[in-house]
Amino acid sequence: MTPRGPRLSASARRAQLVDVGRAVFAKRGYEGASLEEIADRAKVSRPVLYEHFGGKEGLYAVIIDREMEYLVRRISESISAGTPRERVEAAALAFLSYVKDHPDGFAILTHDAPVTAAGGGMSSLLNDLAGRVGDVFAASFKDAGYDAKTAPIYAHALIGMVTFVGQWWTEARKPSVEEVAGHIAALAWMGLRHLPKRPTRVAAKKG
Amino acid sequence: MTPRGPRLSASARRAQLVDVGRAVFAKRGYEGASLEEIADRAKVSRPVLYEHFGGKEGLYAVIIDREMEYLVRRISESISAGTPRERVEAAALAFLSYVKDHPDGFAILTHDAPVTAAGGGMSSLLNDLAGRVGDVFAASFKDAGYDAKTAPIYAHALIGMVTFVGQWWTEARKPSVEEVAGHIAALAWMGLRHLPKRPTRVAAKKG
DNA sequence: GTCGTAAGTTACACGTGTGTAGGTTGATGT
DNA sequence: ACATCAACCTACACACGTGTAACTTACGAC
Question: Could you tell me which residues come within 8 angstroms of residue B22 by beta carbon, excluding any fewer than 6 positions away?
């Protein structure tokens, strides 16, 4: 039934299980995924998973951690130099390239973490990312005479932009990531550039 | 153990179960939720759920459908009149007000649907919404001399903006929805207003 | 070659969740 | 009062998934 594969070293098996696990979690979501499927795909029996990761949450935590670390590094490198305008575009391109090259990891990061884990709401990475962007914005806002308190709004808006566009692109695959990155970077840049000092409501709603 | 509540009419029970189910699905996600918990909260035994909705997916489908219909109606009404600029802001405000008034429904719509259902990727509502916005954009783009093929990018970017900001606001709750709507509407409007005819990459990446 | 140990297995106990069969209760009209 | 029908319940059969205990197999050192 389940033809067992070759015997691997501990570290090699660990690496393989992380890969397989990422694929399964991406496809089924955390709750929907089963260690049974992961073990089967890896041509291994279930106890091996407990041996290496202690259980479902352990494996998931390792996968999440690696994926976050990888994405953050990739973006950090891409924005290490250049004008602000260039950095915005580089960040967008780095993010979308990640979406293209690692669709499974992206899927996991955008899906919800297990409810039991601390953090409550959504995947913590995107929030962390937004937090960092927000800090950068807050500094720039203060220099430019804007209200620094509103920085988180724009930070989350930008993260949401690229995330949702990335999700769409995963299915559409139509314009190249380079082109898409150019568009959303332009949208974000121009939007921020021409922001009124204190955006007040244009129309008052009656009722 | 489970003190049974009063006897209700079929339609009243149905309505109650939809309400309770929405709360539970919002808290646990589709896979994580159990009919057992829903039945318990409703002071009813499980078979009642099967009687009314045929099963887990049936109940979920009803909840999703109602929630989508409600949100679309709310947004549609809000953008029925005014200048384009006003409509953008009204749409943002309508969306964020929905987030504020119906956090459970919003949570469900942003979470993933059951994998078995057709549609594959993410919650279909947000995609549908983006599709409609994209159509509107495509028309405007053509009139203004922009490439209509890029309209979906901007449509999804805007939906992603408000969605992610909405998710953040659910936890932050700091600036009022009116103020937040003003900010993201300004960002979106100014960004679109000052878009270059053909956004090309500003910096070429080496390596 | 044989011996030790890391790698891997089979088998079981347990909990939880789904879906259904068949019986029970209570309101409502006459 | 009592028949009737909708509303509701108890009890079961079943599948699946987790986690653990006890046993087996292959590789490498000497």
Answer: B63, B67, B104, B105, B108
